[in-house]
Amino acid sequence: MKDISNRTVGIIHAALITTKAVQPFIDSIIPDVKVVHHVDDTIQCSNFACAPGIIPKQNLYKFATYAHYLELAGVDVILLACSTFNRAVEVARPMINTPMLQIDRPMMDLAVQQGKRIGLLATVPTTVPASQKLLNLAAAEAGREIDVTTVLCSEAFAEIKKGNTAKHNELLLREISLLSNKVDAIVLAQLSMSALEPELVDTKIPIFNSGRTGFTRVREMLESM
Fold first, then answer.
1. Residue 36 belongs to what H/E stretch?
2. Do 13 and 39 meet the contact criterion of CB atoms below 8 Å apart?
């Protein structure tokens, strides 16, 4: 692998919980890279206060502002680690020269190549519309037609917020077992769901999480520079 130890990644988080979720992937995929985190819990709070599909304008502004300051700090890639307002990257792109990535996009790109029937498994209601749009965008840009089956398991998010990862994983594995009979691939809609990865061995169909696929793409971006 190419030496990228002189590179820096800036990660913008909408909630403190994702700072813990990304660490295993930083350690395993880009351990030699300097990582700086910017966390603003008020983004998730205001996203959750709105109906699914509604993103407060100030959150889009916040992302663009934080991306601007990370750019001034000299980071090489800016990563958005939130699914609910994933379109903030596209909103900010005309204003920011530094390469940016929304962490879910790589798994969406991979999933639409697996077949027409895609399962979207989520644990937060506000994420569902944003993830569906991103999945459809990935399909359209790849010239693929897809049918999306969405499953929401809110109980799992409640468990992982309490620190009960085992129960979180148990609930999601049950849903995956049911969904695997209906679709060609599954995407796990939130970064926090990447905690399930160690238990997804020899799965019936491909199951993608944004931690693994997102940081793999980040490394590819850094190595291409």
1. strand 34-39
2. yes
Question: Cβ distance 196 to 172 under 8 Å?
Answer: yes
Sheet of strand 147-152, all strands in order from the earlier edge strand to the far edge: 147-152, 117-122, 185-188, 207-209
DSSP 3-state of 152: strand
Domain 8-103+213-223 has CATH 3.40.50.1860: yes
3-state secondary structure of 121: strand
Q: How far is CA 97 from the centre of its chain?
A: 22
In which residue are the tokens 């590819």 written?
220
The whole-angstrom separation of Cα 46 and Cα 59 is 8
Q: Flag whether pLDDT at 186 surpasses 90.
A: yes
SS3 of the chain: helix, strand, coil, percent, to 5: 50, 15, 35
- Is the fold of 8-103+213-223 the same as that of 105-209? yes
Bigger pLDDT: 144 or 53? 144
- 64: its two tokens: 């663009």
* Angstrom distances, CA of residue 98 to CA of 28, 39, 65, 216: 24, 19, 13, 18
Integer Cα distance of 109 and 213 in angstroms: 10
CA atoms within 13 A on the CB side of 125: 8
105-209: CATH number: 3.40.50.1860
CB 180 within 8 A of CB 158: no
Task: Note the pTM of the prediction, 2 decimals.
Answer: 0.94
Residue 57's Cβ-side half-sphere holds a number of Cα atoms within 13 Å equal to: 0
With 90 as the cut, is the pLDDT of residue 31 above it? yes
CB 102 within 8 A of CB 209: no
